[in-house]
Structure formats: structure tokens, C-alpha cells
Design brief:
It contains 4 helices and no strands. It is mainly α and about 100 residues long.
Length: about 100
């Protein structure tokens, strides 16, 4: 009689897919160290950001949208168009 294989939910270590491993590595690699910024927002803004994530072509994370918004904010202040007065903005933002 043929030997039966034991059923398990674990994958064998040899079952790695190169394309999946490459994708996981690409999203887990960090160019710079990350620092957590606490940010509470209104339910309306949260809903809009979540909808943007869901409707983006690549399911872009909300934090990526927030990073883009902060980069735009830095440029706005660099041009002197910010809502609040910030002394020595060029030194703070650097290049």
C-alpha cells in the first residue's frame, strides 16, 4: 500500500517563489530609518484616504499618500506659501 503524506497547513521550506520573494524584499527594504509620527484625523479625512487606497491602481498604502502630502507641504513652505510663519525654513528643510 502507498505511503500517505501527512496533511499540514505549513509550507515546505523549498516552496519559495522567486517572484514573491523579490516583491516582499522590495516592500520591506528601507532606504532610511523610519520614525513614527502620531497623527489623529477626522473620520472624514480617514474615510477619504482609505477610499484613495482602495481605488488606487496598486493599492497604495495610506502612509505613502501621507508621505507625499508632507513632501508637498515642505515645498510649499520652501516657497514661502505656508499658512504659518516658520523661521529659518531653508536650514530646517535643507536641500
Amino acid at each position: 500500500m502507498a505511503e500517505r503524506k501527512k496533511l499540514t497547513t505549513r509550507r515546505s521550506s523549498a516552496a519559495g517563489r522567486p517572484d514573491v520573494e523579490k516583491a516582499v524584499k522590495a516592500i520591506t527594504e528601507v532606504d532610511q530609518p523610519k520614525k513614527r509620527v502620531p497623527y489623529d484625523t477626522s473620520v472624514d479625512i480617514h474615510r477619504k484616504l482609505s477610499s484613495m487606497r482602495v481605488n488606487s491602481a496598486d493599492n497604495v498604502p495610506v502612509k505613502t499618500f501621507l508621505d507625499e502630502a508632507v513632501e508637498d507641504l515642505f515645498e510649499k513652505y520652501r516657497r514661502g506659501e505656508g499658512r504659518y510663519q516658520v523661521k529659518d525654513i531653508e536650514r530646517i528643510l535643507g536641500d
